[in-house]
Design a protein that fits this description.
Chain lengths: ~350, ~450
């Protein structure tokens, strides 16, 4: 089977995976202990309103008989396929779930983009640099740094970094005698809170948006950065000591060609799953980081929806996450297919 | 076997060998010890000749090859001796590229008097034995006589790098031009210059064809890389040349195969592709580091046949490393036997198999399967190759040697002639015609001269 057939097969296989994931989500939401009506109406609910709500949610028929679970399941899945994700009952009563997600998504995408970028642009080059100079001071420095970044839990780092930045003016005055305020640096921004991402085309607002996102993005990308650094270093070391690199040297190739052509591409192969697995860290981490930095993104929305029992919203978000992760998996397969010609199903 | 003819008018001795390895020493420096992986070995390879290097694992065969190629990485380093590559085209090419690092021996001859140089060196405390390469060891040698009798020539002084000590040549110079054939001193070449020597000039194929090709590029891509670098062909021309080379190493359907990846090739095919890649560099010398060890016997025979064919077609010199005496018998003209970093026996292949002199060689030959069909067990040499981690003042093979005697612990055996001129062995049992104490004395005095060379 050719590489591209392999890739197509991976794409097609993504559909049942999403289907299965959403079936689990359905079970957790509908068969779980949480009563969505109680979550929306509180303890002293009006029976009539509660009844209407249950009918609207498709939990009971108008005559008061419960809708069988399999019928609920079919409704739930049909709604997902047609993207009618319903409306929220708790967080923002009456608003469409889809609209809410679309409104909050840009901030999270912005955060995710920068955290991935920082990790990629710092972690991989640093790892490759260290790998090309093994057992030298720069290598030890970078490797130690990688372990430190990897070891700092992001909830802890988020709190420490935000509090340091908030009180940066006082701290620097005490330590070096010059008050340096992070908030006033370059452009005035808040450390905690959400900045506007409107008109990013304007350089000033672009800089403001980037400056605002950097601290949370560093926190979110820190672990991945450390991972990529360490795996990158190992991958380069392994590749550079391989027989084909020696053959390339014996051919008389220059060091630059050897590093960029022969080492680089092979060293990327073990990095692909490391990079893509960041996506999972990203979703879990964004919930934490957005909460600590009070960013109004999807992560915080998920946290609130789950905490307050807004099951329709939680279901919709999990659907979006499931699809996102499948896309990441497909991108990972695409990268594999592009980088490594050996990829395929029927390998001996 | 040389392609060069000596001009009778020439005063200097010329190396007619393509590659001359002299007192090559490569050590690995670890925290614990210094491992003398290659410990002062000398041999020559002529054009069109196959020189086999045999020995057990750990005897220093591969390190020798990598030292010649300049592929020794830290913590290893070539610490002494010289590797002289004597190919006119390569010398001219490198001399053009590195004019500042080129020594012109003719120029030196006109500018400096050899006798004066010798006198200066003697004054600097260089021993006469070292200066004359053991030919004269009296302390009262006459510089003028040495120069007049051509015992020491300018070429000798350059080859042994004495001219560096006199300050008339640069330490960094590595290209030597001379009227009849200069050479490239590989041990003095910079990494940059070595790269221009590698591939073109000297090419190498490695033991494991499964890992010698980069898995993420097509076979054609990797061959074309060498073609572009060493033959200057581009695009379609390079592609055609790659196909031609694959055909030359008997890969069927080369047009299709050229665009396939290494994993789509079988083991034998991959080794053929690696050979094609080496040939794409247009080398004069091909170093084969156990190229058939990872292959099964039928494929091994095919590859050996292919190598011999290629050698005939291109007048290629081959340095063939293996631990398989059977393979050596088949392919080699000259054989060097290595043990623990040292060359213990050197002979034409026929002489070595008919009359092995060194007990180690005898042991190796005895342990070829099928030599003693009447015995139930295969004969072996007891014990392992020791790690050569100190300057040898004894025979490194003595602990395993069936013929060892007391002197083996205290006298280091040097290579001495045994039988015909081209056959030498480093064993205290030789020269056979001398009584033991005289033989020992000869080894001692040779060691004293050689020892002076060792840094």
């Amino acid at each position: 089977m050719s590489r591209w057939q392999y890739f197509l097969r991976r794409v097609v296989l993504a559909v049942p995976v999403v289907f299965f994931a959403m079936s689990l989500v359905f079970l957790v939401i509908r068969a779980g202990p949480r009563d969505p009506v109680a979550a929306a109406l509180g303890q002293n609910q009006n029976p009539e309103i509660a009844h209407r709500m249950r009918v609207q949610m498709g939990i009971i028929n108008p005559d008061g008989t419960p809708v069988p679970l399999w019928e609920q399941y079919i409704d739930f899945m049909t709604d997902l396929v047609t993207l009618s994700l319903g409306q929220t009952w708790v967080i923002n009563r009456g608003a469409s779930v889809l609209d809410l997600i679309i409104a909050r998504a840009p901030i999270t995408i912005w955060l995710g983009f920068w955290s991935v970028l920082i990790a990629l642009l710092i972690g991989i080059p640093l790892g490759f640099y260290a790998g090309l100079r093994p057992n030298t001071f720069p290598d030890y420095f970078a490797s130690f740094g990688g372990i430190v970044w990897r070891a700092m839990p992001n909830f802890w780092l988020a709190i420490i970094l935000s509090s340091v930045l908030v009180s940066s003016e006082g701290l620097t005055e005490d330590l070096i005698g010059v008050p340096l305020s992070w908030s006033d640096f370059l452009i005035e921004t808040d450390v905690i809170g959400t900045a506007s991402l409107a008109n990013l085309g304007d350089p000033v607002s672009l800089i403001a948006a980037v400056k605002w996102i950097l601290p949370p993005a560093i926190v979110l990308g820190s672990a991945s950065m450390g991972n990529e650094m360490r795996i990158g270093r190992t991958a380069v070391l392994e590749t550079i000591n391989s027989a084909y690199v020696e053959t390339a040297r014996a051919k008389g190739l220059g060091r630059r060609v050897i590093v960029w052509k022969h080492v680089f591409r092979n060293a990327l192969i073990p990095l692909v799953p490391v990079i893509s697995s960041e996506a999972f860290v990203l979703i879990g981490g964004s919930v934490l980081v957005e909460t600590v930095f009070a960013i109004n993104g999807l992560g915080k929305l998920t946290f609130d929806a789950v905490k307050q029992g807004d099951l329709a919203l939680a279901g919709g978000l999990l659907f979006v996450f499931a699809i996102f992760l499948q896309i990441v998996n497909i991108v990972q397969d695409l990268l594999y297919t592009l980088i490594d010609p050996r990829i395929g199903y029927d390998q001996s | 076997m040389s392609m060069h003819s000596h001009s009778p008018a020439s005063v200097d001795r010329t190396d007619d060998a393509l590659l001359t390895v002299e007192n090559l020493q490569t050590s690995f420096f670890t925290d614990k010890e210094t491992i003398r992986a290659v410990d002062s070995i000398s041999f020559e390879i002529d054009r069109g000749e196959t020189v086999g290097i045999v020995g057990e694992s750990g005897s220093g065969k591969s390190v020798t090859a990598r030292s010649i190629m300049g592929l020794i990485d830290a913590p290893g380093r070539v610490v002494g001796g010289s590797v002289r590559f004597n190919d006119a085209e390569t010398v001219e090419r490198l001399a053009r590229q590195y004019p500042d690092r080129t020594i012109d021996v003719d120029e030196l001859r006109t500018e400096h008097d050899v006798a004066d140089c010798i006198e200066q060196l003697l004054e600097q405390g260089v021993s006469p034995a070292k200066l004359t390469d053991g030919e004269q060891d009296r302390s009262d040698v006459d510089p003028v006589e040495l120069a007049r009798e051509d015992i020491v020539t300018m070429r000798d002084l350059v080859e042994r790098r004495f001219t560096d000590e006199l300050g008339i040549t640069e330490k960094s110079a590595f290209v030597v031009r001379d009227t009849d054939g200069g050479y490239v001193d590989a041990t003095h070449a910079s990494e940059d210059a070595f790269r221009k020597l590698r591939g073109r000039g000297i090419s190498m194929i490695f033991q494991d064809p499964l890992t010698s090709l980069n898995p993420v590029y097509t076979v054609g891509n990797q061959i074309k890389e060498a073609i572009r670098l060493h033959q200057g062909l581009q695009g379609t021309e390079a592609h055609e040349e790659a196909i031609r080379l694959l055909e030359a190493v008997s890969i069927p359907d080369a047009h299709r195969r050229v665009d396939e990846y290494p994993h789509e090739f079988s083991g034998g095919m991959r080794q053929r592709a690696v050979i094609a890649m080496a040939l794409a560099c247009k080398p004069e010398l091909l170093i084969c580091d156990e190229p058939t060890t990872a292959l099964d016997v039928t494929i091994q025979a095919q590859i050996l046949e292919l190598l011999m064919e290629i050698q005939d077609d291109r007048d290629l010199a081959i340095m063939f490393i293996t631990h398989d005496m059977g393979v050596i018998a088949e392919i080699a003209d000259q054989v060097n036997v290595m043990y623990a970093g040292e060359l213990v026996e050197k002979a034409p292949v026929g002489a070595l198999f008919d009359a092995p002199k060194h007990p180690y060689t005898q042991g190796l030959l005895e342990s070829i399967p099928g030599r003693h069909p009447e015995e139930d067990r295969l004969r072996t040499i007891e014990g392992d190759v020791p790690t050569p981690n100190e300057q040898p003042t004894y025979c490194r093979f003595a602990p395993r040697c069936p013929e060892a005697f007391d002197a083996c612990e205290v006298v280091h055996p040097e290579n001495v002639g045994v039988g015909d001129a081209e056959h030498t062995a480093a064993c205290l049992l030789y020269p056979e015609e001398l009584p033991t104490d005289e033989a020992l004395e000869q080894h001692r005095s040779l060691g004293a001269t050689d020892g002076g060379d060792q840094r």
